[in-house]
Amino acid sequence: MSTPKNTATSDKQPFLSDIKNIRERARANMRDGAITDGYKADRETVIKILNEALATEIVCVLRYKHHYYAADGLNAEAVAQEFLEHAQQEQEHADQIAERIAQLGGKPNFSPDSLSTRSHSEYIEGDTLKEMIEEDLVAERIAIDSYREIIQYLGDDDPTTRRLMEEILAVEEEHADDMAGLLQDYA
Question: How many angstroms separate the CA atoms of 179 and 142, rounded?
Answer without folding.
Answer: 13
